[in-house]
Amino acid sequence: MSKKVVIYGRISTDEQNIESQLQAVRRYCKNQNWDISKEYIDQGISGAKDSRPSLDKLKADCRKGIIQAVVVYKFDRIARSTSHLLECLNLFNRYGVDFVSVTEGIDTSTSVGKMVYTFLGAIAEFERSLIKERVKTGIQRAKNAGVHCGRPRIGFDINKAIELRKRGLGYKQIAKELNHGVSHMTVYRYLRGMDG
């Protein structure tokens, strides 16, 4: 039985001609003896945009279970970043939809295609780890330079807080009495030395 596939095509400017990429994909599908049931085309839309009218419709149709495979001319037609490509591939995988890139020769229904999919996942995870590491390093550098990181500190009347604590009020009650949006944990940090 012939596989039913859909084509996704995109060009970033209206001046470009999308026909050349579509013809290459149609030819590939014909050689594979696949039936093209629909073509989803986004014209004049940058690949940097994660949300595009036809791509959004394609994803919705995948969720409905009416697509067996998505065929593109190149990876960058569907996504410009590894994370966005992986997001699309994860969606396809979740709904049992194969993904084929004609020029890169990738088909996720094959063992080589599955391996590429795994590599992309590892690369995306590596990118996320690098970003986290850079953020941590940046925060530490700022702290070392004396810059306060995190939520801004809220000032409060420490003398009033001490007086309220002496009267036997709990930290939550003191925070409420101070009425400055100060948290009870901040009050606790300042006053804990008194509770000896």
Describe the fold and architecture.
The mean pLDDT is 83. It contains eight helices and five strands. The chain is an alpha/beta fold and 196 residues long. 52% of the residues lie in helices and 14% in strands. It is elongated and about 85 Å long. Helix 6 packs across helix 7 and helix 7 crosses helix 8 (184-191).
How would you briefly describe this protein structure?
By secondary structure, the protein is an alpha/beta fold. 52% of the residues lie in helices and 14% in strands. It folds into 2 domains: 4-112, Resolvase, N-terminal catalytic domain (Rossmann fold), CATH 3.40.50; 158-191, no CATH class.
Describe the secondary structure blueprint for this structure.
Elements: E1 4-11, H1 19-31, E2 35-43, H2 53-64, E3 69-72, H3 75-78, H4 82-94, E4 98-101, E5 106-107, H5 111-144, H6 158-166, H7 171-178, H8 184-191
Parallel strand pairs: 1-2, 1-3, 3-4
Antiparallel strand pairs: 4-5
Descriptive labels:
alpha/beta; 196 residues; Rossmann fold; 5-stranded mixed beta sheet; 8 helices; 14% strand
